[in-house]
Amino acid sequence: MTQPIGSSLADHLSAEVARDARLADTAATVAAIAEAAIDVSEVVGRGYLAGDLGAQGEQNSDGDVQKALDVIAHKRFTQALQAAPVAEVASEEAEDVMVLNPGAPLAVAIDPLDGSSNIAVGMVVGTIFGIRPVVSDPSDPNASFKTPGTTQTGAGFVVYGPATTFVLTLGNGTRIFTLDRSTKTFRLTHDAITVVPSANEYAINSSNGRHWDTPIRAFIEDCLRGSEGPRDRDFNMRWTAALVADAQRVLIRGGVFLYPGDNRKGYAQGRLRLLYETAPIAFLMEQAGAAATDGQSRILDIVATKIHERSPLVFGSVDEVECVAKYYEGRQPAAGRSPLFGQRGLMRS
Ligand SMILES: O=P(O)(O)OC[C@H]1O[C@](O)(COP(=O)(O)O)[C@@H](O)[C@@H]1O
Ligand SMILES: [Mg+2]
Ligand SMILES: [Mg+2]
Questions:
Q1: How far is Cα 158 from Cα 168, in angstroms, rounded to an integer?
Q2: Number of H helices, E strands in the chain
Q3: CB within 8 Å of 80: residues ≥ 6 apart
Q4: What are the pLDDT digits (tens) for 231-283?
Q5: What stretch of H or E contains 97?
Q6: 39 among annotated binding-site residues
Q7: Pocket test residue of 111, 116, 123 for ligand 1, highest count of atoms within 8 A of CB
Q8: Are 255 and 202 in contact (CB under 8 A)?
Q9: Nearest-CA neighbor of 282 among 142, 118, 109?
Q10: Could you tell me what reaction this enzyme catalyses (predicted)?
């Protein structure tokens, strides 16, 4: 049963379990993550008064330098998951899978703090998670995470912005809950979201333009040409440097987000990690009627071979995601290439 706007996350979780009792463990895990998110939200909300949250520490598994807030968030979410029916955790901030409650039914992949480059400048950051069943294989400690994203029973992200939002799917639509700070409760503000099929906004870090492959360069070039190019309409560009914030914008307003692979060393598969970034976002997008691919193939069908594996990511309004795939297939709208590429101009390589 759909809950009314303003109802609590706890009520929504109860309703989901009433709909499908198999979701009980997933719902308990989501509740634990939400509690921790409120605590992290308070730290983020104190901003510079909380000390130097951007202070640099060790390198994480992916070679990124950990910031103080990365470590605080990792500890708080791990503590929360310890008290949930979770056996294993794959965290961006831990090299190997962490074993929490052996014998418990669930495995969680988590990016405790997304958008780390925004910490020091006091801008929006978040948390991303995907929940899936444990796969027992004594010969492979990572077996639970080597299943396609379609096995996820729940996924979500938190945005610590002007408001703190908790964006959730349990496979029955995507909803946004907003933190009511007076009661420390997440309340439903956006029920069963439907992303518009087409919109005039794209998000990409265009400073990497000279490293992109031809289809992505051509797609962005044609967006830039706007009403004078084959797309026949003008586009706007947004990039927050926090995947969670860009994903929330796409859910509410539509558009397309791209973090493709590129020619920089180590970036052949882009920057984002399959298990705790692209697969949860893909589940949330599909549940909102949007799409998510690596440019051509559905993200939710990809099986990780290692826990910190990266994948290119293109998600958002279905027509735009489909349009990107057409550029890869050579079926893009016909037109001469723009002078912005290949010759003198903004995007010259
Ligand atoms: O700095 P870039 O290359 O624009 O990358 C930004 C992207 O990297 C991320 O910050 C990666 O996440 P982490 O901060 O968790 O490593 C995304 O949130 C964001 O979309
Ligand atoms: Mg991240
Ligand atoms: Mg992170």
A1: 9
A2: 7, 15
A3: 32, 33, 35, 36
A4: 999 999 999 999 999 999 999 999 999 999 999 999 999 999 999 999 999 99
A5: none
A6: no
A7: 116
A8: yes
A9: 109
A10: beta-D-fructose 1,6-bisphosphate + H2O = beta-D-fructose 6-phosphate + phosphate
Round the average pLDDT of the chain to a whole number and report it. Answer: 94
The set of residues, in sequence order, having a beta carbon less than 8 Å from that of 76 and lying 6+ positions away, is: 36, 39, 40, 112
Planar angle of CA 174, 269, 313, nearest 5 degrees:
20
Count the neighbouring beta carbons within 10 Å of the beta carbon of residue 268: 12
Strands (E), the chain: 56-59, 65-67, 86-91, 98-99, 106-114, 125-133, 154-160, 164-169, 174-180, 185-190, 201-203, 236-237, 256-259, 291-293, 313-316
Q: CA 227 to CA 90: how far, in whole Å?
A: 45
**77 pLDDT higher than 80:** yes
Which structure tokens are listed for 269?
A: 């598969």
Q: For residue 294, give the 3-state DSSP assignment.
A: coil
- Name every protein residue with a CB atom under 6 angstroms from any ligand 1 atom: 64, 92, 111, 114-117, 205, 241-243, 271
Quick check: helix, strand or coil at residue 40? helix
3-state secondary structure at position 291:
strand
